[in-house]
What we know:
Helices cover 36% and strands 13% of the residues. By secondary structure, it is an alpha+beta fold. Strand 2 and strand 3 (25-31) form a beta hairpin.
Amino acid sequence: DIFEVRGWERDKRGEVSLPEVENSKVVLSYYGLDKVRRRTEIIFELPPSKVEVEPGHAYPPSTRRMSALLPETYEAAPRIISRPPCAKVSWDLTLKPRTPLDITFSIQPSEGEGIHRVDSFDDVLTKMRDSYHEWRRGCAMLETNNELFNRLLERSVLDLRLLIEDTPQGLVPTAGIPWFACVFGRDSLITSLQTLMLNPQIATGTLRFLAKCQGTKVDPWYDEEPGKIVHEIRKGEMAKSGEIPHSAYYGSVDATPLFLMLFTETMRWLDDDELFQEILPAAKRALEWMENYGDLDGDGYVEYLSRSSGGIRNQGWKDSRGSLTYPDGTPVESTVALVEVQGYAYRALSDMAELLRRKGDAEIADRLAEKASNLKRNF
């Protein structure tokens, strides 16, 4: 699990099976605590001369800090370092003079039971190249009189495609490779705002995806509340088994007003009535969250207070453990109203008022405009 790679301590793990050897194939498998079997098939084009299967074993506990992975606020804990069962593969070969020899193999990961058929490398590569060409055709052409800057723009457009996930709701940006290759509400929303000129399909896909994942109930473990926009969605073993709350974790104070900002800005660009009607219910629930749950003490500001024992303490853009302290270094423990979040809230209220007035709902528009004015005056 990626959280283990980052240094998360686990009380127990699933079972790593002995490698299975089938002619030119070695199969590695793991049965997780989430009751899911994950397999990795290594298929050799040239059959190995010898395959040796070795059982795993554990080394004595170590207290070595994972300093490169964990911030200093984490204390070192005994770590049981283990080596899982493995297979050693070798070939006895006679090389002819001046004649190259390739040993080619493919790796096919799969999750769950049953037979998983994977296309060949060449077929997958062709499909991937086609998808990049299709992506480029759907983007605006940005060109200047500076060739170096043009190359920078082109590289950036292709790099952005690398970070985009094609979901049933449309294109959604992920946060970053390798540790954050999943949807983060804040990151996806800001990226969508900044790329409306390039390709508005990113914005529409993100709006639809986050509306589908919007909070529906009060659940402290997930920091979930009705109308709140999700912070992070993970699909690994630890999330699926409930060890961590990240299967759909809502510990972000700014994603909800950012959702409203993206909705209103997308309507400025597209003025798509069908999209407006589709996303409007989620937008209204987001407004209700800002009023009923985001403002914890009734002072008009949007605040946060982490309730999940497995969640994030600081829930703004800088969400590391030591990011918010008093001048003497003491961590801030009470409710927190971040300055930039009030700016997001003001723009969300103002822009929603403008949009709803344009769509003929003057009564709600006036109420939102008044709330925005009060927030600005009090700020």
